[in-house]
Specification:
Elements: H1 7-20, H2 32-70, H3 76-85, H4 92-101, H5 103-118
Helix pairs in contact: 1-2, 2-4, 3-5, 4-5
Amino acid sequence: MARVKRGVTTHARHKKVLAQSKGFVGRSSTNYRIALERLEKSLQYAYRDRRNKKRDFRGLWIQRINAAVREHGLTYSRFIAGLNKAEIEIDRKVLAAIAYDDPASFAEIVKKVQVAIAA
């Protein structure tokens, strides 16, 4: 049976790992064994934080909506309940953007909500 030399494959794999770990601190970017460990950990963080990012942004949108709604004398929870009563289907991302970029149109939405709450 012929002898298999694996140097080319190993070198390519090491090169790939070191390229992906570029920018890591210390030997984590130059030493293969350490770089592989740091790279695996970084991929775990990336996987976890892709999910956490959604959570964080939802919290930010809620804070922005709450701040904007309080200027009109409502709380966030009453505002969301009023949106449902008024049958206005706008998600929090869009509401936060409107509140941040266009306070006049957000005020119109709040007026409609206040009318729905009063009724």
